[in-house]
Write a structure and sequence with these properties.
- It is built from 15 helices and eleven strands.
- The chain is α/β, with parallel strands linked by helices and about 375 residues long.
- The chain folds into two domains: about 60 residues, no CATH class; about 260 residues, 3-Layer(aba) Sandwich (Rossmann fold).
- An eight-stranded mixed β-sheet has the order 6-7-5-8-4-9-10-11, sandwiched between helices. A three-stranded parallel β-sheet has the order 1-2-3, sandwiched between helices.
- Helix 9 packs across helix 10 and helix 11 packs parallel to helix 12.
Length: about 375
């Protein structure tokens, strides 16, 4: 009641109203009322889409590195001057988020094998350990912790102390075209990861590599507060920002009744995390053609996902790859697991090529429009 009275009083004396992500109790009805009173609402925000969805027309995207840069834009808007703001170009690389519900679903193995296969096809590839509960990629690949990992790169982004490309150039190199970003050195350090910094990390990594593959961890939850109090640490921030930014999501599950039940239940509960990406499923542990047919039908019927890959469990081959800190595909290219991930990678590589062609067509179209305008 007090807020309503205060706003009604202000409505009589102001023509512009400034809000930010921290402004409390702003809703669609209030924005409609402001619009009807012909009061210009200007949102200074890190999430332009959120305010557009609420009905705010005038939004100024806040630069976390230089918060004062928005002052000029606010001043121009309030004076009614025309703004010419160049949108930031989309990153050129493809981000793939590999997820799974529960442990022992083959998620980390999928990250490694897909990364290896894509790098062998010529794509500059980087795998990132974004698991804030149990990072293990560095151990499986035989690397020491603290080697220019996720935490160190995020700190560089926050401090803006050195070019981020330098850190990407110094990443551990697994093989030609294949780099690696280690996870947290200690699980307790998840509090050092901030949402805006992670979003910037995914964007810059896509600028530096053709393909970035994120191991997003086994534990997921929908955290709507990520859209608002982004300065606060979130336990799932690395995983959720990866899924939010990904063009492709791969969900791994065991091909037994427990694994399928987890997959279906998890996907239905967290489907909004995958809504903006192309979704594939990898099922582990296929033992027969009849089982293959049954699990495919069950997953497709309950989730609506049509792109499903299946592979067997090769315990000896997987154990040998881990013990030698290498890849199943590198040890034995004729292994069933190797063949399956080669097929997955070919499909993803085609996706990458199509993405490049679409960007090229878009650039040509833009140039043609400029020529016609001239």
């Amino acid at each position: 009641m007090e807020l309503t009275f205060e706003l009604q009083f202000k409505f009589q004396i102001v023509k512009e109203f400034l809000v930010s992500d921290a402004t409390p109790r702003i809703n669609h009805d209030l924005i409609v009322e402001l619009t009807e009173r012909k009061i210009k609402l200007i949102a200074i925000t890190t999430d332009v889409d959120y305010w557009h969805d609420l009905g705010v027309i005038h939004c100024i995207e806040l630069d976390a590195k230089n918060p004062l840069s928005g002052i000029k834009q606010v001043s121009e808007l309030m004076r009614g001057e025309t703004q010419v703001i160049e949108p930031a170009p989309d990153p050129k690389g493809l981000l793939i988020a590999v997820a799974g519900f529960g442990g022992s679903c083959g998620r980390t193995t999928a990250v490694k094998e897909i990364g290896w296969q894509l790098s062998k096809s010529g794509a500059r590839t980087c795998i990132v350990d974004a698991d804030t509960y149990g990072p293990s990629l560095d151990q499986e690949l035989g690397y020491e912790p603290n080697q220019n990992g996720l935490l160190e790169i995020c700190r560089t982004i926050e401090k803006n102390s050195s070019p981020i490309q330098t850190h990407f150039d110094l990443l551990p190199t697994i093989s030609e075209n294949f780099s690696f970003v280690a996870g947290l050195p200690k699980i307790s350090r998840w509090t050092d990861l901030r949402v805006p910094t992670l979003r910037e990390f995914w964007r810059k990594s896509r600028d530096s590599f053709d393909v970035v593959i994120a191991d997003v961890g086994a534990v997921l939850e929908v955290d709507h507060s990520l859209m608002h109090e982004t300065s606060l640490p979130r336990r799932h921030a690395a995983s959720l920002t990866a899924l939010e930014s990904a063009q492709v999501s791969i969900i791994c599950a065991r091909a037994d009744k427990v694994g399928i039940a987890r997959l279906v239940r998890g996907y239905l509960e967290f489907h909004e995390l995958f809504a903006q990406s192309e979704v594939h499923v990898v099922l582990w542990g296929i033992t027969s053609d009849s089982q293959r047919k049954d699990v495919r039908a069950a997953v497709s019927r309950h989730t609506g996902i049509e792109s499903i890959f299946e592979t067997t469990f090769d315990h000896d081959g997987m154990r040998k790859a881990v013990s030698q800190s290498t890849f199943i595909s590198k040890l034995d290219s004729k292994n069933e697991i190797s063949k399956e991930f080669e097929a997955i990678s070919k499909k993803l590589h085609q996706n990458l090529e199509l993405q490049g062609q679409e960007k090229l067509r878009s650039q040509k179209s833009g140039r043609n429009l400029l020529k016609r305008a001239a």
